[in-house]
Amino acid sequence: MIKGGVKARWAVGLVVTLGFGAWSVVNLVLPIWLSGQESPLVDVLRLLSWVGLAFTILLAALLIRFASRGAPLVPASTSQNIEVDRIEGNVMQVGGSYHSTKFVTIFANLPRGVKVAAIVTVTAQLVTTVLSGVAISRLGRIAQDVSTEVAGTSPGSAQLQYSVTMSMGMCKSSWVVPHDTGPVPVVRDGQPGGTIQADGSLFSVTFQGTHSVAFKLESMRAEVLTRKPAVGGVRLNPSCEEGLDPRSFVVNLNKPEPSVIGIPGKQESTVIPPPEFPFVVSQSELEQFNITPVVSRDYVEWQLRVRYTSLGVSGEIVVNNNGQPFRTTGTMSTEDTYCVNLARLDGNWSWEPRSAENPCPERMTVSQIGLGGTWEGVGVDSGENEGKMVVDDEFVTWSSRGEQARIRLVSVDGVRSEGGEELIVSGADGDVVESTMATVKEGDRVSFWQWRGFPQKERWKFITQMKEEMFFCRSGVECGG
Q1: Of 98 and 358, which is predicted with more confidence?
Q2: Beta-carbon neighbour count of residue 60 at 10 Å?
C-alpha cells in the first residue's frame, strides 16, 4: 500500500464539517447558552466563524472542481507497468504491475493556492472550535460564581447586591410607636427606634451588580411570613405630600398572597407609565424601586423575592431589612397621631403631639368631615361623567356605566384650624373589596381629599391607585376641574 493519496470526497467532507460545525457552535449554541448575555470574546469568535465559513465554501468549491477534473485514471480492467515514484494514492500490486482500485485524486497535483486555502481553512476552524470551548468553560465558571455569590458563598466573584432605605424623609415615611410616648426625633437616614412601619409608608430598594456581568431582574413578589392583629399606639404622620417617583410599586398585604403592582410616577410635569419587569442592572447600571406596602387591619412581617437571570443562570434573591423581615402595621388601632412640628426654625424637628402651633390630623368620623351621602363624579382631565358614590360610615359604593365597586374606609382624618372651629383639610383612605370596574380593581388603595381652599366646599377629589383623579360633588353643584 502506498501512502499519500487523499480522496476528494473525504477532504470536502472534513472541511465542510469543521467549517459549519464551528460556525454553528459560535452563532447558535453560544447565544442560547448565554441567554442573550454578551462578552468581547464571543464577538471575536463570531468574526472568526464567519471568516472560516467563507473559506470553507471557497475551498469546498475548489476541491469539487479539481476532483471532477481528476488525475489520470487507470481502469480497473487494465494492468500495465508504471514507475512507482510517479504514483500517489492507493494501489495494489498484481504480479509485476500496479493496479489502481478506485478513483484517486492526486493531492500533489492541486494548485498551490488550493493547498494554502485548505491549510488556512482547517486551521481557522480548529482554532475557532478550541476557543469556543474555552469561552464556554470560562463563562460557565463566571455564571457558577454568580449563582453561588448571590447566596453569599463565593466572595470576590460577580454578585447581585441590594440596599434598603427605610426612611424616605418626613414627607414619605410614616411609623407607629406601640406605646404612648413623648416627642420622637426625625431620623433622616433611618427608622426611628422602636417603631413599626405604618400602612401606606414608603421605602426604597436599590439593586446593583459588582461586575460588568449584567443581571436581568425578571420579576418581584412579596411573601408573608407572619400575620397578626394591627398594633395600637401612636402614629407618626408624614408632614407633607410629594409626587411619586418612577419605578414605584404598591404591595397589597391584605391578600394572603400579596400582589406587587407598578404604579405611574412623575418627573416634574411628565407622567411616567407604570414600571414593568424585566430590568437590567450591572456595576454601572443601578435600579431603585420605591415600595409602598398597604395593609388595613393587620400587622404583617414579610419580605420580597426577586427572580433574576445572568449568563444562563436563573436564581432568586430574598430582599429584607438588614436580615430581618419588613414589618408593616395598619393604623386603624392607633389612638393618637403625632406630626412634625415645622414651626421649629432650628431644624431640630421631631414628631410631637397635636397643639395650637402644631396642627395635626385627628381621627374623625365620616359625618364629621362631611363625606357621607350621595356624590356625582366627573373626570378631572376627561370631563366625563363618572357616575355616583354613596358613602356611609364604613363603605363607599361607586356605580358608573353599569359597573360597580365597593370600597371599605380604613382611615378618616381631619386637620382643624388653630381655633379648632373648622376643618382646614380632611381626607379618607379606602381599600377596594369588590369591583367590576376597569378603573379600580380589588385590593387597590384609593383616597378622598378635600381642601377648604376649593371654590366649593361640597366637592371631593377622588384618587385611584393608578393616580387617575376625579371630582365628586353634591347634586346641582358645578363639579368641573
Answers
A1: 358
A2: 17
The CA-based angle 288-440-277, given to 5 degrees, is 30
Which residues, other chains included, contact 28 with Cβ-Cβ below 8 Å and sequence gap of 6+?
none
Based on the number of CB atoms within 10 Å of its own CB, is 479 exposed (0-12), middle (13-18) or buried (19 or more)? buried
Q: Quick one: pLDDT at residue 383?
A: 78
pTM of the model: 0.68
CA–CA separation, 396 vs 412, rounded Å?
Answer: 13
Contact 59, 118 (CB under 8 A): yes
Neighbour tally for 116: CB within 10 Å: 11
**Residue 262, CA distances (Å) to 159, 271, 354, 445 in order:** 26, 13, 35, 13
Query: CA–CA separation, 308 vs 148, rounded Å?
Result: 13
Q: d(Cα 105, Cα 447) in Å, to the nearest integer?
A: 88
Strand 248-252 relative to strand 287-294, pairing = parallel
Q: Phi and psi (nearest 5°) for 49?
A: -65, -40
Please report the pLDDT score of residue 35 as a whole number: 44
Distance of CA 385 to the CA centre of its chain: 37
Which pLDDT score, from 0 to 100, does residue 188 have? Answer: 72
Per-residue pLDDT of 258-312, as tens digits, reads: 999 999 987 777 788 999 999 999 999 999 999 999 999 999 999 999 999 998 8
pLDDT at position 169 is 66
Half-sphere exposure of 93 (CA within 13 A, CB side): 6
When computed from its CA atoms, the radius of gyration of the chain, rounded to whole angstroms, is: 38
